Amino acid sequence: MQQFEEGTTLDRFLLETMREHPEATGQFLTLLKQVALAGKLVSARVNRAGLAGMFGATGSMNIQGEYVQKMDLYANETFKRALEHAGVVCMIVSEEEEAPIFVPPPFRHGNYVFCMDPLDGSSNIDTNASIGTIFCVFRRASEGDGQGDASDVLRSGRDIVAAGYVVYGAGTVLVLSTGRGVQGFTLDPTVGEFFLSHSDIRLGASSRTYSCNEAYAAQWDPRLRAWLERVKEPSLGWSARYIGSLVGDFHRNLVKGGVFLYPPTEKAPKGKLRLLYEAFPLAYLVENAGGAASDGTMAILDKTPASIHERTTLFIGDRDNVEEIVRALNT
Ligand code: AHG
Ligand code: MN
Ligand code: MN
User: Would you say the pTM of this structure is higher than 0.85?
Assistant: First the structure.
């Protein structure tokens, strides 16, 4: 794959990368550009949230039974609007909407399916901690050029053709993979462009940082608890880092190394995180960076959701750490 210098614009990167994918249509490029545009709009709003009356909850609950924040709705609408008119998607799945979203007339349906958590970590909005948009893209599986159907989304994670996230933190960073490595682009808000800042991100084989909500450890499988106790042996030199925003925790671990765990708990016996638009995208990125993602028994990308909001257990990060956790859970 062509090497790009730091400072390359996202647009140039996308244009030149697409030339290496002869099968890619203009639709794929347009889709990724629209994602970047929506990311810039949400970033601008997140930065001004306290001034723009965007802190706090709307008062309603989403279909996951979680309180919807004003910024959740803004991000959902922004990504939807950026994609629906562009003629690039035949269906969108969003954490914020119970049913799949179809392109309203007069817009044309496209060849791709977009799955998103429009704003992850939204309980952190009011605290100025990192939050983000997580997404993955499939090429449509359904026949024809009308609206998509269940076969477009209830399918193996191995069918993903692109995935990424935009993390709104101290800076705004878009991390993207189209199947050949993982790149990070930082938004320069003074000119409104994303520039390559993290080229070809690779994870080491193992690290000594874990990210989990340890307050739930008493509810975990005792074998996982035993693993945690083992790595806390002071001579091993482990640390913990946890924000409570998957995208923020994952981004930290991708850049610095680490393993993120969200095991089943009493409240969430199948895990809390959503397979299609949280675990799938991050698993695609982590595998493309040399890491691993598992639900404790199988690779996340080998799973096939039975419903669009299905939840999963998640262990994700440096390969050897994930393998060790899976081993511990199965012995
Ligand atoms: P969302 O804001 O999209 O509903 O996701 C919240 C998730 C995820 O970001 C994070 O890893 C997890 O909730 C934190 O859960 P706990 O508070 O149970 O640790
Ligand atoms: Mn989320
Ligand atoms: Mn969310």
Answer: yes
Please answer whether residues 99 and 220 qualify as being in contact, where contact means their C-beta atoms are separated by less than 8 angstroms.
Answer: no
Tens-place pLDDT, residues 33-43: 999 999 999 99
| Distance (Å) of CA 228 to CA 39, 64, 222, 256 | 36, 29, 10, 20
50 in contact with ligand 1, CB cutoff 6 A: no
- Our CA angle for 218, 224, 226, nearest 5°, is 85
- Do the Cβ atoms of 325 and 225 come closer than 8 Å? no
Give the ligand whose atoms come closest to the C-alpha of residue 67: 1
Task: Indicate the SS3 state at residue 262.
Answer: strand
Site to probe by mutation for ligand 1, drawn from 123, 165, 250 as the one with most ligand atoms within 8 Å of Cβ, is 123
What angle, 0 to 180 degrees and rounded to 10, lies between the N-to-C axes of helices 70-84 and 26-47?
150
> Could you tell me which CATH number the domain at 10-198 has?
3.30.540.10
CATH domain 209-329 topology: D-Maltodextrin-Binding Protein; domain 2 (3.40.190)
Give domain limits for the chain. Answer: 10-198, 209-329
